[in-house]
């Protein structure tokens, strides 16, 4: 029965798993299910779950650990991690307009991990589709961002989408790159940034706009101004911070989108979804900071398997999240008793008591989403 299910999986995912032997595909799916059950990426902690999943609980844990290690030893330098990403992209059948660029970092031992990550927003949830570990402390630079985006653009067609990013992701050459590649953007600015260009345009100065928005009694007051910066037609937006607990009462945005200030402010608010994504991948989900796989390419493969598992949880959570009961906090605001990810993850674990059921579940996702695998762009692998 298991062999037949693996054959069906290979048939449905033709392309993503074509380079894998059946035993290797089985090991990757075992690793994914182990992550769901144990909620970590630490292979040493996952080895115990492998015995339960495979029905070989009597086998020495060290043997199960070696089974997991072989996945990365064999495919560390292959394109499998990228094929898995394309497979996830196909599974979602993404129609989202928005991308989010952000980073997350932590220190393990003496080494810094800094994952510069591009995510796509899917039903108000951010899904990582590409990343690079900068292996440093501190923010990314323009060259690193452009390098990441060039790799992404060789993998996925992102034309016409809107990039959302925080204030560390600015720069004139960066903006020019985005526009040259048909990418709209809404990016937060620090105060006093690019005022020489903004004030040179006809109309109110940046400070006059700030003063007017501050004085307004309208809760969501916002203003915008068109200006030119080194040949680029852009807009400066000032809006009140919707978060009453924020340290800064105003938000400053730069965009190329010719839309009213209120629309731009609302769209930028979508960016906060990435914060929840990192929380699920780290402290509230798969304990990403416990990653003990060494080597850039091995870490890329592990991250791809994490994202695959994360997406399965999100897909399951979306089906029934409306039924999750709400609570009321001390300020009288309603909130869900459990996160979308946690709801989906827990429900998925309860529905996949055996490895065979886990494979059957994934096969149903193919059928329900009418998934068609997107073949990789051969240009991608020439660099």
Average pLDDT figure: 84
- Stretches with pLDDT under 50, minimum 5 residues: 371-383
- Find the structural class using helix and strand composition: alpha+beta
Provide a count of the helices.
14
Relative strand content: 15-25%
Describe how the helices and strands are arranged.
Layout: H1 2-12, H2 22-38, H3 43-54, H4 61-75, H5 80-92, E1 98-108, E2 111-122, E3 125-133, H6 142-153, E4 162-165, H7 172-180, E5 184-189, H8 195-200, H9 206-215, E6 222-229, E7 232-240, E8 250-255, H10 261-268, H11 273-281, H12 296-320, E9 326-328, E10 334-336, H13 340-351, H14 355-369
Parallel strand pairs: 1-4, 4-5
Antiparallel strand pairs: 1-2, 2-3, 5-8, 6-7, 7-8, 9-10
Helix pairs in contact: 1-14, 2-3, 2-12, 3-4, 5-12, 12-13
What labels would you give this structure?
8-stranded mixed sheet, two-stranded antiparallel ribbon, 45% helix, disordered C terminus
Describe the structure.
By secondary structure, the chain is α+β, with helices and mostly antiparallel strands. The chain has a domain at 2-8 and 16-78 and 293-324 and 334-382. Helices cover 45% and strands 19% of the residues. The chain is built from 14 helices and ten strands. Strands 3-2-1-4-5-8-7-6 form an eight-stranded mixed sheet, with helices on both faces. Helix 2 crosses helix 3 (43-54) and helix 12 (296-320) crosses helix 13 (340-351). It is elongated, with a radius of gyration of 23 Å. The model is unreliable at 371-383 (pLDDT under 50).
